[in-house]
Amino acid sequence: MSTSAATRPPVTRVPLSDAMLPPVDMSTPPWPGRDETVGGVTLHVRRTPGPADADTTAVYVHGLGGSATNWTDLAGQLAGHVPGVALDLPGFGHTEPPPGFDYTIPAHADVVARYIRGLGVGPVHLFGNSMGGAISVLVAARHPELVRDLVLVSPAMPDLRPWLSRISDPRLPLAYLPLVGTFVRRRLAAEDTQVRVMRLLRLCFAEPDRIPLSRREEAAREIVEREAMAWANPALARSTVGLIRSWLVPPSRSLWTLTPRIDVPTLVVWGTEDKLVTVRKAPRTAELLPRGRLLVLPRTGHVAQMERPATVARATLGMWEQVAAGTW
């Protein structure tokens, strides 16, 4: 971890709960999904049951190219403590985008905020991964009354340094750029589905060979399903552009400027082997959050909630326990 993180003990002291958690079984299928219209927006969501006396809800927001199924195992780990709702953002998973949706980060954040407000359950535990982390930061900064605490897994904070060298296949980022993207996507789509699945796993996981066959088969099915959705590729391409544009806004509107305004307990989780959002941004992200702490996981890639769900769950419960004790 960087020197700056070492000089800020609150950033590095992340408690791991001793609470009993169910074993992680990656053969468990995704939680059932359904379309819901809440707060004036219609999303496909996957709900996780929780205790009858739970006083709040966890809301999970996936990253670029992801879906609600990215939270299957973490939501299962936390189901004994809190009910959960994993969202398919507009244009992703099974959520058809509304006409005229512009796929900017503010537009996605507005959808999430409207959905949370419509739930009527008070402030929620908000989880976000990658682009979903950037969206969650914006929601927490603009709508603090909706968020009880945050868990940010490799949030896509602004980073304008060249990053193609971190990608094993340079065609992947090119696939979602204007003009050249259409040609590249067609070339990639012509490849065998299993080849595409393994490329995705190598990109997102530090140890892709440890991902069980059941999860690889789920990923393959999602790829095939999305190919049948006319809006899927345009949504992915335009959300990619929207994310990059969010990094180019004036400093007054940058996520780096908004982050210090978030005064809720926040756990920042990053994998040392993240190929998509460099772990070098982790200490700065946690340090800028007034109540932020950082957990850096070795041998972990871009989706720690999928690769290390038990560890992320224990850190999350540790945060909740310390918040309840007034020590976070």
Automatic annotation (TrEMBL):
Residues 1-32 are annotated as: Disordered. Residues 59-309 form the AB hydrolase-1 domain. InterPro entries: AB_hydrolase_1, AB_hydrolase_fold. Keywords: Hydrolase. GO terms for molecular function: hydrolase activity. SUPFAM superfamilies: alpha/beta-Hydrolases. It comes from the Bacteria. PANTHER family: ALPHA/BETA-HYDROLASES SUPERFAMILY PROTEIN (PTHR46438), LIPASE-RELATED (PTHR46438:SF11). This is Alpha/beta hydrolase. It comes from Actinophytocola xinjiangensis.
